[in-house]
User: Which sequence fits this backbone?
């Protein structure tokens, strides 16, 4: 049998969410299954909906800025907004998030100011990471949001270790770590799951199964029937939820946080969603996947679904939509304009934070740099 | 170096490491020891014998077998407010954790704009001499000494084995301690109240005026033996123990060469792209006009360390080779 003939699973069929055991709450038509309804207030629902729209509009704006050459890079969350915001919403203020690189929605929700996020896109002197990281690779300690990780999976063992420290210190704290379906093949996923299981750490391992690891589809990533199956091998409780269903994500994550907080150990969550855009602005997915597949998933848009719920409850109108979009558009434009006008970080700051204290050899290298000739336009 | 005033007593390097671990666990409840075989087994080199019994499994933790995972967990625990001491069995196995050490521990403070520090201490054995061949015997200290964000230490004496750990734990940044496997059995005297030592200076282990022998870790003893042999031939060698491999203490090296005008660098690492080359480059840059003879290096032969005893001996820097290199340097009159 050729490789191609082997019937590999999982698939990227939107109807996979109908499989037994997948938590679903909010249906495509905006109706709610009361069995798992997390019972959000109207104000919470409206707040989350506005946040979802804000993340999407920001995403679209940042792609445009990259295409115009005004920023170098963007890695977005088109189609995955509910999985990201729903899980962040379910975390308590004391909890920590260890991100992959697609979760700026979670960072904003946790308190990263939009202006600081946009500053990071420009790497200016107000960038929270001082122009040292590429766009979308920030840290926000105040929001208890760790450093965005480019090497795949490395944040998983760190989240497990952080949770272990909290357990030893008896801090009421859970860590949630994001990663994609591709990361489930990484060393750090397997040993991180194993360590989380053995140490029974208060950790939520949140897998955004978005169908693609750049150009590699899920069925070429694993021969397991589901990604959640991998929890069985490590003795880690695992659940699947509809990742395009805001309420299912909230309910599932809340359960996992509660389990962790009461000492019942880690949970692996597989959220079934879809990466509607390319991997990043450096990628054109038309080269490796069919538009029909994308269109099918677009019909299951997670934001439109929440809007249908709000409309059913008479909490949202076209006028509300127009005014929300206008406000977000103005906010984003203002932030971009401010970020673009902000100076780049001073050259000498490059040497800060290599160590807590600047050592003599970096003082020498800094002074040498400032004394020496340098290329035009490299600031002062 | 700090020398206590209490009477000295006989001990070993291994005992000094254990005393340092014990003191750290006693002094600071945030300190914990983690890694493979550190608990019930007492450490692959018996450095933590008895500590599990004394401090319990929350403080002395046997982990499952994955270097990248227990280093990654150590990074997370350090970020989360603990002061983990991670033991990696040997530097050879640390390569499985290199992404965590380089891309994460060493870089997080800078990448996060100073928001996140990683006060992590990693101990690992290094070096050859025990006939355990290529995958257990390499000296890769220069890999780590290459990486900004790390501090890299090589305790070569009982005082440093006893005293460097606490100073490393007080450091807000990640520190890697290399313990040469041939040193664990080293016997000597240590003041009963020996304590923390600075980790930012090289040490002159033997003053001399004719030639500077630069060594670290497992080669310091060989350089001292070479200095004794040279003394019999009326060559007065100065021996410098680097102690800290990142950042290097240029000042002590330059002061020595300004006096002796000659230097031989002894390094158990491979020659090409190694620490000895780095030291020679610094001396060439900053002490060129002080030098009366070409710089010389005594390094490990550029082969994977072989098992057979005579082959292993031949591959490594030895006293005879150091003496010969030093005589070669002093034979040239500038």
Assistant:
């Amino acid at each position: 049998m050729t490789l191609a003939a082997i019937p590999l699973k999982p698939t990227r069929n939107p109807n996979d969410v109908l499989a037994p055991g997948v938590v679903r709450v909010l249906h495509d038509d905006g109706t709610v299954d009361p069995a798992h309804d997390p019972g959000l207030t109207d104000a919470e629902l409206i707040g989350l909906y506005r946040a979802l729209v804000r993340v999407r509009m920001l995403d679209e704006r940042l792609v445009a800025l990259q295409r115009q050459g005004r920023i170098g890079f963007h890695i977005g969350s088109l189609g995955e907004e509910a999985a990201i915001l729903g899980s962040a919403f379910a975390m308590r203020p004391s909890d920590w998030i260890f991100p992959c690189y697609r979760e700026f929605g979670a960072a904003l929700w946790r308190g990263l100011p939009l202006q600081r996020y946009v500053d990071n896109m420009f790497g200016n002197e107000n960038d929270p990471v001082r122009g040292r990281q590429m766009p979308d690779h920030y840290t926000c300690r105040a929001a208890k949001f760790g450093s965005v990780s480019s090497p795949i999976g490395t944040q998983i063992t760190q989240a497990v270790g952080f949770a272990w420290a909290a357990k030893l210190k008896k801090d009421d704290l859970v860590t949630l770590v994001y990663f994609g379906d591709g990361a489930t093949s990484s060393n750090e996923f397997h040993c991180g799951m194993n360590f989380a299981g053995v140490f029974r750490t208060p950790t939520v391992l949140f897998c955004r199964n978005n169908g693609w690891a750049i150009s590699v589809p899920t069925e070429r990533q694993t021969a397991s029937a589901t990604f959640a199956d991998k929890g069985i091998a490590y003795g880690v409780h695992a659940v699947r939820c509809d990742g395009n269903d805001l309420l299912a994500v909230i309910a599932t994550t809340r359960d996992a946080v509660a389990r962790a907080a009461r000492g019942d150990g880690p949970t692996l969550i597989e959220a079934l969603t879809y990466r509607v855009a390319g991997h990043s602005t450096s990628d054109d997915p038309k080269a490796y996947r069919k538009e029909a597949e994308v269109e099918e998933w677009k019909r299951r848009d997670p934001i439109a679904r929440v809007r249908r719920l709000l409309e059913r409850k008479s909490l949202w109108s076209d006028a509300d939509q127009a005014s929300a979009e206008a406000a977000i558009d103005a906010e984003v434009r203002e932030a971009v304009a401010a970020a673009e006008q902000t100076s780049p970080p001073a050259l000498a700051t490059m040497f800060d934070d290599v160590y807590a204290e600047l050592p003599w050899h970096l003082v020498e290298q800094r002074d040498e740099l400032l004394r020496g000739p340098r290329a035009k336009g490299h600031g002062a | 170096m700090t020398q206590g005033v209490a009477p000295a007593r006989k001990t070993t390097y291994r005992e000094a490491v254990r005393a340092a671990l014990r003191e750290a666990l006693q002094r600071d409840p945030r300190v914990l020891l983690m890694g493979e075989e550190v608990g019930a087994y007492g450490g692959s080199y018996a450095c933590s014998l008895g500590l599990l019994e004394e401090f319990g499994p929350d403080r002395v933790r046997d982990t499952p077998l994955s270097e990248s995972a227990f280093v990654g967990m150590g990074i997370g625990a350090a970020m989360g407010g603990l002061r983990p001491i991670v033991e990696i069995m040997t530097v050879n196995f640390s390569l499985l954790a290199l992404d965590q050490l380089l891309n994460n521990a060493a870089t997080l403070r800078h990448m996060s704009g100073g928001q996140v520090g990683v006060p992590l201490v990693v101990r690992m054995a290094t070096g050859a001499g025990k006939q355990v061949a290529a995958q257990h015997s390499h000296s890769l200290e220069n890999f780590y000494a290459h990486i900004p964000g790390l501090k890299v230490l090589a305790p070569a004496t009982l005082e440093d084995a006893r005293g460097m750990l606490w100073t490393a734990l007080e450091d807000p940044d990640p520190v890697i301690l290399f313990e040469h496997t041939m040193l664990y059995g080293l016997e000597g005297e240590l003041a009963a109240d020996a304590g923390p030592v600075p980790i930012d200076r090289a040490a002159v282990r033997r003053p001399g005026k004719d030639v500077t022998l630069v060594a670290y870790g497992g080669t310091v003893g060989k350089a001292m033996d070479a200095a004794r042999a040279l003394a019999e031939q009326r060559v007065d060698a100065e021996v410098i123990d680097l102690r800290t491999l990142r950042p290097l203490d240029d000042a002590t090296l330059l002061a020595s060469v300004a006096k002796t005008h000659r230097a031989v660098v002894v390094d158990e690492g491979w020659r090409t792209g190694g620490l000895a080359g780095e030291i020679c480059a610094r001396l060439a840059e900053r002490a060129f006009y002080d030098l009366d003879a070409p710089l010389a290096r005594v390094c490990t032969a550029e082969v994977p360390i072989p098992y057979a005893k005579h082959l292993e001996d031949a591959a490594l820097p030895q006293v005879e080779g150091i003496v010969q290199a030093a005589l070669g340097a002093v034979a040239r009159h500038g």
